[in-house]
Specification:
The structure holds two protein chains of two kinds.
Chain A (H helix, E strand, L loop, with lengths): L3 H29 L7 H26 L7 H17 L5 H24 L6 H20 L4 E2 L3 H8 L1 E2 L10 E2 H19 L1 H11 L1 H6 L4 H27 L1 E2 L7 H11 L11 H20 L4 H28 L1
Antiparallel strand pairs in A: 1-4, 2-3
Chain B lengths: L5 E10 L2 E11 L4 E5 L6 H8 L7 E6 L2 E3 L4 H7 L1 E4 L11 H5 L6 E4 L2 E4 L1 H14 L16 H13 L5 E5 L7 H16 L3 E5 L3 H7 L2 E6 L2 E7 L5 H9 L15
Parallel strand pairs in B: 3-10, 3-11, 6-9, 9-10
Antiparallel strand pairs in B: 1-2, 1-4, 4-5, 7-8, 11-12
Helix pairs in contact in B: 5-6
The chains are: A mainly alpha, B alpha/beta.
Chain lengths: 330, 258
């Protein structure tokens, strides 16, 4: 077949094209801002800023693999954040309990989403999670009277704020603890999705839920797990953001579910489920983060940033459409 | 006559006020290929879903190897060795062939409710199984969405028989295939029979029934209508059964002109 060579190139581009885009953006930013972009301080700052969005995107990813959507992640992150801040500040709970409050709130919210989807049989996860988006945000404002709760214990802030200088970097530059949290979470998610039976069932559900069902997979149960994992990651995002900002503020994460969806889609996952990789999602988060950072360094207004990110989403999905068309033709 | 392997006695299935099956008796013997025919709505698919555990019967009971059984899910039916091949194949197109074959039954190490996959073993077992059934594919790592209809059907049959299946139920096994692929799938059914597997084929196509089956039974309006060993009947009689008439002879055949 004469197209064999092209097929290989296409396959390579499909798997690693996103990395090329990332390197391209970094090269461009290094070229335009040689003094600032490649400094340890700027890079560790980018990583710290994108830790919480990365957690949200990873959670969103596993939901999108099942052809679902979770609109509640931003609100759940805020609810987790203010819950742990209140239990820390107002109730004086010890830090080793407070750090688990975020993930637990997230898991509970995810369970509610999963139950709504599978037991109430609401027609699409969009609807259930639109409901919990509002409920979680309302609860967040209710328990805080819409005012930030600031001043957390240093141990609670550790994961979100601490940076390891390793004797090489000058603080605040260094390896942020939050990037370790994201790395461990991403590797765990990768292992779960690619090396365990339930992870493969998640992909199967995204590809053909009927096939999964008749193969004896308990589709409802797997879906509940999926939304609980997504919620747990949103809760961890809340812990990281609370640590970084030293507060639980009730407006945190408004609209961040859309950034999470954008990162997943730019990272090559299919909106229709069954396709995508953890590495792609991380690349998607970094592309959005680097674009924001680079546009800031180059003094481009935030309004243009938003427009550009919108264009990137459309272009990324269009590339996916072209790829599918090529796959159908062969 | 030998002891039936799978038997249903007085099976009924109601959906609210609708009666899909009423007092249906049914049996299939070891290594036998049974054809089940009937018009749309005659209850074929409902009966097959009862046998494969997707529906629980409203009345009546099932017997496997002479013992009463009750299936609450396809998983229960699979445990005793009853497998279903669906008309739309029910494969996940985004997953490779070998993963589809083992979907829901992945080999590996079990830890705390999860199975850590042994992908090498799964590939090897899949390849061996396909070889045993004489199914040829470019690679077991190919995604199912890249396959032709006949290849998909072959993968679906391979999946159904991967774990020592005793009964394989096939819903319209040739309906979604190109004509040149039909023969291969029917040969595959004969291969299964030669391995001692009982096969139940639901089909509208007389060619399927008369090429691959040993016995044929007809359902009409949700109940038993007629049945016969294949040598004792003919195509026109069976077509008559589907339409609810008996004694349908050569003279009534719609494809005869004089």
């Amino acid at each position: 077949m004469s197209s064999g060579g092209n097929q290989k190139v296409l396959k390579l581009l499909e798997n690693y094209g996103i990395v090329l885009v990332l390197i391209g953006i970094m090269a461009f930013l290094t070229w335009t801002q040689p003094l600032y972009f490649l400094t340890a301080e700027n890079l560790s700052n980018i990583i710290k800023q994108n830790a919480a969005p990365a957690m949200l995107a990873l959670g969103m990813f596993i939901v999108i693999v099942t052809a679902g959507i979770d609109l509640s992640v931003g609100s759940v992150m805020a609810l987790a954040m203010v819950s742990l801040a209140i239990l820390d500040k107002s109730f004086g709970w010890p830090w080793y309990i407070v750090i688990f409050v975020g993930p637990l709130v997230g898991i509970a919210a995810g369970w509610v989403n999963g139950i709504g989807l599978t037991w109430l049989k609401l027609p699409h996860p969009f609807i259930m999670t639109l409901g919990t988006l509002n409920i979680a945000r309302g609860l967040t404002n209710l328990v805080t009277n819409a005012a930030p709760v600031s001043g957390l214990q240093p141990e609670v802030r550790y994961a979100g704020r601490e940076v390891y200088s390793l004797g090489i970097f000058d603080p605040p530059a260094g390896i942020p603890v939050s990037v370790l949290v994201v790395t461990v979470s991403a590797l765990s998610l990768w292992f779960f999705l690619n090396r365990t039976n339930v992870g493969r069932h998640v992909y199967a559900i995204g590809g053909n839920p009927q096939a999964a069902r008749v193969s004896g997979v308990n589709v409802d149960r797997v879906l509940i797990y999926v939304y609980m994992i997504c919620g747990c990651f949103a809760g961890i995002a809340g812990l990281l953001l609370a640590g970084r900002t030293d507060s639980g503020f009730p407006n945190a994460g408004i609209g961040s579910e859309l950034d999470a969806i954008a990162a997943v889609i730019i990272g090559g996952a299919s909106f229709f489920g069954g396709r995508g990789t953890v590495g792609g999602v991380i690349a998607g988060v970094l592309i959005i983060g680097l674009m924001r950072n680079g546009l800031n360094l180059n003094n481009v207004s935030v309004f243009w940033q938003q427009i550009l990110i919108g264009v990137v989403i459309i272009v990324a999905v269009y590339i996916d459409v072209l790829r599918r068309r090529a796959a159908v033709r062969k | 006559m030998s002891e039936p392997l799978l038997e249903g006695r007085g099976v009924a299935k109601y959906f609210g006020a609708i009666t899909a099956l009423q007092d249906v008796n049914f049996r299939v013997n070891t290594g036998e290929a049974l054809g089940v025919v009937g018009d749309n709505g005659a209850g074929k698919s409902t009966l097959m879903k009862v046998l494969s555990g997707l529906y629980t019967p409203s009345e009546g009971s099932l017997y496997f190897d002479g013992k009463p059984v009750r299936f609450n899910s396809p998983r229960d039916a699979r445990k005793v060795g009853i497998e279903m091949v669906y008309q739309d194949f029910a494969l996940a197109g985004n997953l490779p062939i070998y993963e589809n074959i083992f979907l829901g039954r992945e080999p590996g190490r079990k830890i705390a409710g999860l199975t850590i996959l042994d992908r090498g073993l799964a590939r090897q077992m899949a390849q061996d199984h396909l070889d045993k059934l004489k199914i040829h594919v470019k690679s077991i790592d190919q995604n199912v969405e890249e396959l032709s209809g006949g290849q998909r059907q072959a993968v679906a049959i391979a999946r159904a028989t991967a774990f020592d299946a005793k009964v394989v139920i096939m819903d319209e096994p040739t309906a979604a295939l190109a004509i040149k692929e039909v023969g291969k799938v029917l040969d595959l059914i004969n291969t299964l029979k030669s391995h001692g597997v009982s096969v139940i084929i639901i089909s509208h196509r007389m060619d399927d029934i008369f090429y691959a089956c040993d016995r044929v039974m007809a359902l009409y309006q949700g109940t038993n209508f007629a049945e016969a060993p294949l040598p004792q009947t003919n195509r026109n009689e069976v077509i008559g059964w589907i339409m609810g008439t008996k004694g349908h002879t050569e003279g009534f055949a719609h494809d005869k002109v004089n």
